[in-house]
Amino acid sequence: MTNIDEKHSTLETIISQRKEKIKAIKELGVNPYPYSYNVTHKNKLITENYDEFEGKEVAIAGRLMAIRKMGKASFGNVTDSTGKIQLYISKKDIGEEKYQLFKMFDIGDFIGCKGSVMKTRTGETTIKVFELELLSKNIRPIPIVKEKDGVLHDSFSDKEQRYRKRYLDLILNPEVKETFVKRTKIMSETRKFFDEKGYLEVETPILQPIYGGANARPFETFHNTLGMNLFLRIANELYLKRLIIGGFDKVYEICKNFRNEGMDKSHNPEFTVIEFYEAYVDFNYMMNLVEKYFKTIAKSLDLSVIEYDGNKIDFEKPFERKSMFDLFEKYLKVDISEFGKEELISLCEERKFDYDPKWNYGQIIDKLFGEYVEDNLIQPTFVTDYPKAISPLAKMRRDGNEKIVERFELFIGKQEYANAFSELNDPIDQRERLELQAKLRDEGDKEAQVVDEDFLQAVEYGMPPTSGVGIGLDRVIMLMTGQTSIKDVLFFPQMKKEN
């Protein structure tokens, strides 16, 4: 419920009325914004352990989310970080002066109260209040959510507004908090997993003089003191490899990356990843480790089968391992393993697949894979045998096939989650490949990688056999919480400017 005098008022009128209430409250000698309150218990602890608390005194605090004023006695609901609890407030119990103060309370106010725990005739756990304090006066009305028979009505349901005003989303849709509690747990379990495996957590620069480690467009800024352009990192790969070169055998970093590119349900310009590198192992070793990581995270959330986007994904079975070309043969019904660029172009024309003549062999393969294969990869599947042309930091396949590298990507529920290489540590080959990327940039490919001379010099000092993996943690959290939009696992996703 809301106050009768506010029911049909404009926003400006309501704010004005509440400012007048603040003046009136101050005239009563009450500070509407005190400094602290001594909370003894949380709401959920009381409601879930009624037998233990019956008749006992407690002090709780939270946001007033419902008021039912009935003359000399009233009911209200207060919500804290753990849930809601009902209050019974009577003039007899708190006195005339406090009851007059209570009459100036509005939904959205923060209050503190002391009282004894009881149950009403309807069986609802309630605090019978005998001390009441105003902790923060609300002046801007929050949307009203009505509840009847356990069903919420008029909830704050507009997706765009929920993302823009996440604080209101959390107030009015408390179940949203569970996703972010799980996010924190997943981050904690991720650190635990790699710490226990002997990896060292490190930090590398966000502002970089040369960006690299991925095919993406960067955000650019300018450092006034140094008088130079800097870039927000698109990946931390090249810095982590420098640490392997410097003598660390196992390193990982959980970090924010930034890519100046399109946005959709699985892409936000600012996103969270983990990258980890280990010396003396290859991508086969990392496949086993990545599978173990995903199963460990699922187990920590008591998940064995995950319902995601209409599919049941089984985390108890071994992850599948498939060559990209075997998957093409299965879903495209064509063996393209021996195709060159011209044959691929003919295939695109035959299938009426829109392609850019400037694409190289690897780019055409990648686009065809996205169109014809990815949507079939529901169960966890490691895809191998990626083209060298789109993998400039990976070693060639050890059987001598110069078009294919030792790389895998993990797909689950039609989406990519991890990318890994047997890392290229031949400095001559690495220089040639990055210089080829630079040529592609000159020809108009804005996402081709740049030549990082310092990184190339580091590799020339000698880099041990190494494998590294990048995992998109926002996507992991989406999967483990059943969310199909990245915006639902970010507190404050990037949004277009409102008109």
Q: What's the short version?
A:
The protein folds into two domains: 4-142, Nucleic acid-binding proteins (OB fold (Dihydrolipoamide Acetyltransferase, E2P)); 177-489, Bira Bifunctional Protein, Domain 2 (BirA Bifunctional Protein, domain 2, 2-Layer Sandwich). Helices cover 32% and strands 27% of the residues. It is built from 16 helices and 20 strands.
Write out key terms for the chains shown:
BirA Bifunctional Protein, domain 2; 2 domains; eight-stranded mixed beta sheet; five-stranded mixed barrel; OB fold (Dihydrolipoamide Acetyltransferase, E2P); 499 residues; alpha+beta; elongated
Question: Structural class of the secondary structure composition?
Answer: alpha+beta
Q: Helix amount, in percent?
A: 25-40%
Contiguous uncertain segments of 5+ residues: none
| Main beta sheet | 8 strands, mixed
| Biggest sheet, spatial arrangement of strands | 8-12-13-20-19-18-17-16
Which fold does the CATH topology of the largest domain refer to?
Answer: BirA Bifunctional Protein, domain 2
Task: Kindly report how far apart the N and C termini lie.
Answer: 31 Å
The total strand number stands at 20
Overall geometry? elongated
CATH class of the largest domain: Alpha Beta
How many structural domains does the protein architecture include?
Answer: 2
**If helices are DSSP runs of H or I spanning 4 or more residues, what is the number of helices?**
16
CATH architecture of the largest domain: 2-Layer Sandwich
Overall mean pLDDT score?
93
Strand percent estimate: 25-35%
Q: How would you name the CATH homologous superfamily of the largest domain?
A: Bira Bifunctional Protein, Domain 2
Rounded to the nearest angstrom, the radius of gyration is 29 Å
